[in-house]
Amino acid sequence: MSNEIQAQRAFWNSEADAFQRIYTHRKSKFSNTLDQIFRKDMYERYQFTIANCEPIKGRTFLDVGCGNALYSLELARKGAGKVVGIDIAEVMIGLCRQASDAENLSDICTFIQTDLLEYNPDQKFDVSFGIGLFDYIKNPLPVLTKMREVSTDKAIMAFPRLYTWRAPVRKVRLGIKGCDVYFYSAARINQLMKDAGFSRHELTKVGKLYCVVAYP
Ligand SMILES: C[S@@+](CC[C@H](N)C(=O)[O-])C[C@H]1O[C@@H](n2cnc3c(N)ncnc32)[C@H](O)[C@@H]1O
Fold this sequence. Notes:
By secondary structure, this protein is α/β, with parallel strands linked by helices. 46% of the residues lie in helices and 21% in strands. It has 8 helices and 7 strands. It has helices at 3-24, 29-38, 40-53, 70-77, 90-102, 140-150, 166-176, 186-195, and strands spanning 60-64, 82-87, 109-113, 125-130, 151-160, 200-206, 209-215. The chain has a 7-stranded mixed beta sheet, with helices on both faces. Helix 4 links the parallel strand 1 (60-64) and strand 2. Helix 1 runs parallel beside helix 5 (90-102). S-adenosylmethionine (SAM) binds next to helix 1 and strand 2.
Protein backbone atom coordinates (compact mmCIF):
# COMPACT_ATOMS: atom_id res chain seq x y z
CA MET A 1 0.00 0.00 0.00
CA SER A 2 1.24 3.51 -0.82
CA ASN A 3 1.79 6.07 1.97
CA GLU A 4 -1.34 7.88 0.82
CA ILE A 5 -3.47 4.72 1.14
CA GLN A 6 -1.87 3.90 4.52
CA ALA A 7 -2.86 7.37 5.80
CA GLN A 8 -6.43 6.94 4.54
CA ARG A 9 -6.61 3.48 6.08
CA ALA A 10 -5.49 4.79 9.48
CA PHE A 11 -7.99 7.65 9.27
CA TRP A 12 -10.96 5.41 8.39
CA ASN A 13 -10.05 2.81 10.98
CA SER A 14 -10.22 5.55 13.62
CA GLU A 15 -13.39 7.13 12.16
CA ALA A 16 -15.36 3.90 11.56
CA ASP A 17 -17.53 4.22 14.64
CA ALA A 18 -18.25 7.94 14.08
CA PHE A 19 -19.15 7.21 10.45
CA GLN A 20 -21.53 4.42 11.48
CA ARG A 21 -23.24 6.87 13.87
CA ILE A 22 -24.13 9.21 10.97
CA TYR A 23 -26.24 6.46 9.42
CA THR A 24 -27.66 4.96 12.59
CA HIS A 25 -28.44 8.42 14.10
CA ARG A 26 -26.76 7.32 17.37
CA LYS A 27 -26.06 11.00 18.12
CA SER A 28 -27.50 13.86 20.09
CA LYS A 29 -30.62 15.54 18.70
CA PHE A 30 -28.50 18.60 17.87
CA SER A 31 -25.92 16.55 15.91
CA ASN A 32 -28.68 14.73 14.05
CA THR A 33 -30.23 18.06 13.06
CA LEU A 34 -26.81 19.28 11.83
CA ASP A 35 -26.44 16.06 9.80
CA GLN A 36 -29.86 16.57 8.23
CA ILE A 37 -28.78 20.04 7.10
CA PHE A 38 -25.14 19.48 6.16
CA ARG A 39 -25.20 15.84 5.13
CA LYS A 40 -28.46 15.87 3.17
CA ASP A 41 -26.60 14.82 0.05
CA MET A 42 -25.38 11.62 1.76
CA TYR A 43 -29.03 10.52 1.83
CA GLU A 44 -29.69 11.77 -1.69
CA ARG A 45 -26.69 9.98 -3.17
CA TYR A 46 -27.89 6.77 -1.49
CA GLN A 47 -31.33 7.07 -3.17
CA PHE A 48 -29.63 7.88 -6.48
CA THR A 49 -27.31 4.90 -6.31
CA ILE A 50 -29.85 2.28 -5.25
CA ALA A 51 -32.29 3.51 -7.96
CA ASN A 52 -29.54 3.29 -10.59
CA CYS A 53 -28.58 -0.23 -9.50
CA GLU A 54 -31.99 -1.47 -10.68
CA PRO A 55 -32.74 -4.14 -11.72
CA ILE A 56 -31.18 -5.59 -8.56
CA LYS A 57 -32.64 -9.10 -8.35
CA GLY A 58 -30.08 -11.75 -9.24
CA ARG A 59 -27.40 -9.29 -10.39
CA THR A 60 -23.84 -8.87 -9.12
CA PHE A 61 -22.40 -5.73 -7.51
CA LEU A 62 -18.98 -4.45 -6.44
CA ASP A 63 -19.10 -1.81 -3.68
CA VAL A 64 -15.72 0.00 -3.78
CA GLY A 65 -14.87 1.69 -0.47
CA CYS A 66 -17.88 -0.03 1.09
CA GLY A 67 -17.45 1.60 4.53
CA ASN A 68 -19.90 -0.01 6.94
CA ALA A 69 -21.84 -1.79 4.13
CA LEU A 70 -24.92 0.42 4.04
CA TYR A 71 -25.24 -0.04 0.27
CA SER A 72 -24.07 -3.67 0.07
CA LEU A 73 -26.58 -4.84 2.65
CA GLU A 74 -29.47 -2.99 1.03
CA LEU A 75 -28.69 -4.57 -2.34
CA ALA A 76 -28.57 -8.01 -0.69
CA ARG A 77 -31.91 -7.35 1.03
CA LYS A 78 -33.38 -6.38 -2.33
CA GLY A 79 -32.39 -9.72 -3.88
CA ALA A 80 -28.94 -9.16 -5.42
CA GLY A 81 -27.30 -12.42 -6.53
CA LYS A 82 -23.88 -11.48 -5.17
CA VAL A 83 -22.35 -8.41 -3.55
CA VAL A 84 -18.64 -7.91 -2.89
CA GLY A 85 -17.67 -4.95 -0.69
CA ILE A 86 -14.02 -3.90 -0.59
CA ASP A 87 -12.39 -1.36 1.69
CA ILE A 88 -8.84 -0.56 2.79
CA ALA A 89 -9.89 -0.16 6.45
CA GLU A 90 -10.05 -3.44 8.36
CA VAL A 91 -12.26 -1.91 11.08
CA MET A 92 -14.86 -1.07 8.42
CA ILE A 93 -14.63 -4.61 7.00
CA GLY A 94 -15.18 -6.01 10.52
CA LEU A 95 -18.36 -3.91 10.88
CA CYS A 96 -19.58 -5.12 7.46
CA ARG A 97 -19.09 -8.78 8.35
CA GLN A 98 -20.82 -8.37 11.72
CA ALA A 99 -23.81 -6.66 10.10
CA SER A 100 -24.19 -9.17 7.26
CA ASP A 101 -23.94 -12.09 9.72
CA ALA A 102 -26.58 -10.46 11.92
CA GLU A 103 -28.98 -10.27 8.98
CA ASN A 104 -28.06 -13.71 7.57
CA LEU A 105 -26.84 -12.10 4.37
CA SER A 106 -23.35 -13.62 4.39
CA ASP A 107 -24.22 -16.09 1.61
CA ILE A 108 -24.75 -13.14 -0.69
CA CYS A 109 -22.25 -10.61 0.67
CA THR A 110 -18.48 -10.97 0.86
CA PHE A 111 -16.28 -8.26 2.37
CA ILE A 112 -12.58 -8.01 1.59
CA GLN A 113 -9.93 -5.68 2.96
CA THR A 114 -8.12 -4.45 -0.14
CA ASP A 115 -7.41 -1.49 -2.35
CA LEU A 116 -9.29 -1.81 -5.67
CA LEU A 117 -6.03 -1.61 -7.62
CA GLU A 118 -4.81 -4.76 -5.88
CA TYR A 119 -8.10 -6.64 -6.24
CA ASN A 120 -8.39 -9.04 -9.18
CA PRO A 121 -11.83 -10.69 -9.18
CA ASP A 122 -12.40 -14.00 -11.05
CA GLN A 123 -15.50 -12.59 -12.69
CA LYS A 124 -16.76 -9.18 -13.68
CA PHE A 125 -19.72 -7.53 -11.92
CA ASP A 126 -22.89 -6.21 -13.52
CA VAL A 127 -22.45 -2.96 -11.61
CA SER A 128 -19.59 -1.42 -9.64
CA PHE A 129 -20.01 1.70 -7.55
CA GLY A 130 -17.80 4.02 -5.53
CA ILE A 131 -19.73 6.37 -3.25
CA GLY A 132 -17.99 8.68 -0.78
CA LEU A 133 -14.76 7.31 -2.25
CA PHE A 134 -13.36 9.79 -4.77
CA ASP A 135 -13.35 12.48 -2.07
CA TYR A 136 -10.33 10.62 -0.66
CA ILE A 137 -8.45 9.59 -3.80
CA LYS A 138 -5.63 11.80 -5.05
CA ASN A 139 -5.29 10.12 -8.44
CA PRO A 140 -8.74 8.84 -9.45
CA LEU A 141 -7.92 7.77 -13.03
CA PRO A 142 -6.51 4.27 -12.28
CA VAL A 143 -9.44 3.59 -9.93
CA LEU A 144 -12.01 4.67 -12.55
CA THR A 145 -10.23 2.62 -15.22
CA LYS A 146 -10.35 -0.46 -13.00
CA MET A 147 -14.04 0.13 -12.25
CA ARG A 148 -14.70 0.15 -15.99
CA GLU A 149 -12.67 -3.04 -16.46
CA VAL A 150 -14.55 -4.99 -13.77
CA SER A 151 -18.10 -3.86 -14.76
CA THR A 152 -20.26 -5.19 -17.59
CA ASP A 153 -23.32 -2.92 -17.33
CA LYS A 154 -22.37 0.30 -15.55
CA ALA A 155 -20.30 2.03 -12.90
CA ILE A 156 -21.82 4.56 -10.52
CA MET A 157 -19.78 7.21 -8.73
CA ALA A 158 -20.27 10.29 -6.55
CA PHE A 159 -17.83 13.21 -6.60
CA PRO A 160 -17.90 16.22 -4.25
CA ARG A 161 -18.28 19.43 -6.25
CA LEU A 162 -15.40 21.89 -6.29
CA TYR A 163 -17.34 25.15 -6.35
CA THR A 164 -19.41 24.94 -3.17
CA TRP A 165 -19.05 26.76 0.17
CA ARG A 166 -18.64 23.38 1.82
CA ALA A 167 -15.50 22.36 -0.11
CA PRO A 168 -13.01 24.67 1.73
CA VAL A 169 -14.71 23.97 5.06
CA ARG A 170 -14.29 20.19 4.60
CA LYS A 171 -10.72 20.63 3.32
CA VAL A 172 -9.76 22.41 6.54
CA ARG A 173 -11.87 20.27 8.92
CA LEU A 174 -10.59 16.94 7.56
CA GLY A 175 -7.07 18.29 6.93
CA ILE A 176 -6.73 19.01 10.67
CA LYS A 177 -7.55 15.33 11.28
CA GLY A 178 -4.87 14.24 8.78
CA CYS A 179 -7.29 13.28 6.00
CA ASP A 180 -6.73 14.73 2.51
CA VAL A 181 -9.93 15.45 0.61
CA TYR A 182 -10.37 16.25 -3.11
CA PHE A 183 -13.05 18.10 -5.10
CA TYR A 184 -14.07 17.96 -8.74
CA SER A 185 -15.43 20.23 -11.48
CA ALA A 186 -17.85 18.84 -14.07
CA ALA A 187 -15.23 19.46 -16.77
CA ARG A 188 -12.65 17.38 -14.90
CA ILE A 189 -15.11 14.54 -14.34
CA ASN A 190 -16.06 14.53 -18.04
CA GLN A 191 -12.38 14.29 -18.98
CA LEU A 192 -11.71 11.56 -16.39
CA MET A 193 -14.60 9.45 -17.75
CA LYS A 194 -13.17 9.70 -21.27
CA ASP A 195 -9.63 8.95 -20.13
CA ALA A 196 -10.85 5.94 -18.11
CA GLY A 197 -12.32 4.54 -21.34
CA PHE A 198 -16.04 4.71 -20.57
CA SER A 199 -18.08 4.82 -23.80
CA ARG A 200 -20.56 7.34 -22.38
CA HIS A 201 -21.71 8.74 -19.06
CA GLU A 202 -24.46 10.82 -17.45
CA LEU A 203 -23.61 13.44 -14.83
CA THR A 204 -26.29 14.65 -12.40
CA LYS A 205 -25.98 17.39 -9.80
CA VAL A 206 -27.13 16.04 -6.42
CA GLY A 207 -26.80 18.70 -3.71
CA LYS A 208 -23.09 19.43 -3.31
CA LEU A 209 -22.17 16.36 -5.34
CA TYR A 210 -22.00 15.18 -8.91
CA CYS A 211 -23.39 11.67 -9.30
CA VAL A 212 -22.26 9.85 -12.42
CA VAL A 213 -23.47 6.73 -14.19
CA ALA A 214 -20.88 5.54 -16.69
CA TYR A 215 -21.12 2.73 -19.23
CA PRO A 216 -18.18 0.51 -20.20
C1 LIG B 1 -16.91 8.06 3.45
S1 LIG B 1 -16.63 6.35 3.57
C2 LIG B 1 -17.91 5.83 2.43
C3 LIG B 1 -18.43 4.47 2.73
C4 LIG B 1 -19.61 4.02 1.85
N1 LIG B 1 -19.26 3.94 0.47
C5 LIG B 1 -20.79 4.92 2.06
O1 LIG B 1 -20.98 5.83 1.24
O2 LIG B 1 -21.52 4.71 3.02
C6 LIG B 1 -15.18 6.14 2.60
C7 LIG B 1 -14.62 4.72 2.62
O3 LIG B 1 -13.69 4.58 1.54
C8 LIG B 1 -12.61 3.80 1.98
N2 LIG B 1 -11.47 4.08 1.09
C9 LIG B 1 -10.75 5.22 1.02
N3 LIG B 1 -9.80 5.10 0.06
C10 LIG B 1 -9.95 3.85 -0.46
C11 LIG B 1 -9.29 3.11 -1.48
N4 LIG B 1 -8.27 3.62 -2.16
N5 LIG B 1 -9.73 1.84 -1.76
C12 LIG B 1 -10.76 1.29 -1.06
N6 LIG B 1 -11.42 1.94 -0.07
C13 LIG B 1 -11.01 3.19 0.21
C14 LIG B 1 -12.40 4.23 3.40
O4 LIG B 1 -11.70 3.26 4.15
C15 LIG B 1 -13.84 4.41 3.89
O5 LIG B 1 -14.36 3.27 4.52
